[in-house]
């Protein structure tokens, strides 16, 4: 240290910028399923065995651990005790063994290595945990780097508009209002710090539970290293073992908690525009659906329904009698969904504003002034949704819209949070953070999720005994338990149709399955061909909504002429026929965490040809979809996973493990059904509940072998299912060269409205001679399917135990 020109010169500032690392471990402690390792420089690692397959790693620098708190994982989430747990100290490391994993912690530097019980290395630290102090914020930049395993693929991370495999890319999580984004835009609206890793045909996941701005480098900077880091908070991550990709997502989704079941109507078709007004325009849209026999369950109102864009108000000129209007729409089967943004207009005559102001519910800057920003109403203040009192107040505001007026759903937008010109809040804005106070740096990524949480509580409270429906643009891990979502302000382009497919798959495997895109594109206007191709894809997405910016033209299904209207109606009608299959798939998601949309690698990770495929995906257990994403074509090549598949439109059987050509003019989307599947169909309805379902159609696809299917039913509304009022019907198909058996096992006491099944038989390799249901002969007839095929079918009691179909080998044509 020297003195020069009256300034003290030293190297402390430069040394502060250097990366710091753990020292030698000097102490280890075990308390139940938790382990604490302390280093000579006071760095600590808390390793928690959450289950046999999930390990949590939480690091503290010299300041020690902060109180343990997470918005991603519910406080009441129970820990599952490991079936087996062993802790041993070795000369140079500690070893923790569960029934499924072996984890070693190096004494020299806390480096972690994780293996499966057969000894295969799953994950190994490179630099491991390290950090760098940021003098500007006072936070530590906490970092983790791991070695890249040979042939590794990375998936997940939410709504990133990129190729399915993330290897070679770098991303940031900082929820942003990204109007008209394109492929490669980053960041977008959602912040889901969870990814999956696949190598040597074994999968695991990493969930980095840190709400600060976070970065993920998947071997982009260095080909042999993958890293994740955040500009504050803790290095706190979960290692989640599969060994299958599907199991990884299931474990993660259960950890962060899947949603409750939605009302069945929420899985129908929704129509939205910025904006439908006045009332006469909305009524005209409603009439347009019913007159043209295009099924639709929900209509949306964007910001123009409000009085001067003030949340929780109605425009007296556009919608003078909302309660009457909503009742009239409901009589024709329409449910109304309205938008609510976080910005509350600064207006002393506006009760929502004055209530929040009086109770100090708005966010404040570091020195005390209220956070002010311009959004649609003009200058606004913004509620601090990280405070329980604010969420309770906010939820109470929905009484008027939901309970009194009859609105059935709420749509949260602009909740990244977005602010005109500035982008978002300044970093110094303060948040309560449920008693763990922090700045906007800490709260930004969970603001939208906490707004959706408060909204969901209000909609649920005032919708009872009906189920709630909410939708959000921004969220964080765990946000799936509060809301559905869409992929934001996309563009009417073929590239965005391709992106919609990828983003919805990626969100689904990232724990957020109840998702869709703005059909046709929000920005600009599609032509009829693009719109129909988009409807065809979205019919297989859990959330199915057309939405557009009104200044770019109309985007109702009939807006492109009669030819395209007929085609759009065709695919929307198919969605309504498939609702029992879609609802069952949602039940699997809600109970097991199983992703509703599954990329090819999730179907067969032992087949390396699936690893880089992106277009093809499965909806549920048995449907394989591959959209057409280029104009002017009459089909496409696509990859079929191993096994036998039927082309839905023709019943042609194909063998998987290879590329096949799927012929698909505008009236088709490449759609295959797994051999042995039982696919339930409703009768066609214009809206959920229009008709009493007296007979359910079961499309049964022959397989030489066995295949299982499931059908879940609880009526699609109310909470009786939580008290056991539901039915799970498990089907097993078993085929031989001259017979097919369909067995049914029924669990639960719920009595659905249907009393019979029409069983339609696909792909029988023999000439049918007789059919028996529970040993009693049943007469077969011919059934014409929606696709124009004439197939054998029988009508049987819905409570049957076994249907046996027998025949004789089909005659071989003479040559």
Describe this structure in words.
Keywords: Glycosidase, Hydrolase. Residues 45-217 form the Glycoside hydrolase family 31 N-terminal domain. It holds the Pfam family DUF5110. It comes from Hymenobacter cavernae. With 815 residues, the protein is α+β, with helices and mostly antiparallel strands. 18% of the residues lie in helices and 33% in strands. The protein contains 13 helices and 52 strands. Strands 7-8-9-10-11-12-18-17-14 form a 9-stranded antiparallel beta sheet, with no helix packed on it. A hairpin with a 2-residue loop joins strand 1 (2-4) and strand 2.
- Which structural class do you get from the secondary structure elements? alpha+beta
Numbering strands along the chain, what is their spatial order in the largest sheet?
Answer: 7-8-9-10-11-12-18-17-14
Counting DSSP H or I runs of 4 or more residues, the number of helices is 13
Strand content: 25-35%
Shape: globular
**Count of β-strands:** 52
> What radius of gyration results from the CA coordinates?
28 Å
| Biggest beta sheet attributes | 9 strands, antiparallel
Helix % is 10-25%
Low-confidence stretches: none
The whole-number mean of residue pLDDT values reads 96
Q: Give the CA-CA distance, first to last residue.
A: 100 Å
Family: Belongs to the glycosyl hydrolase 31 family.
Organism: Hymenobacter cavernae
Domain Glycosyl hydrolase family 31 C-terminal: 593-679
Domain Glycoside hydrolase family 31 TIM barrel: 259-584
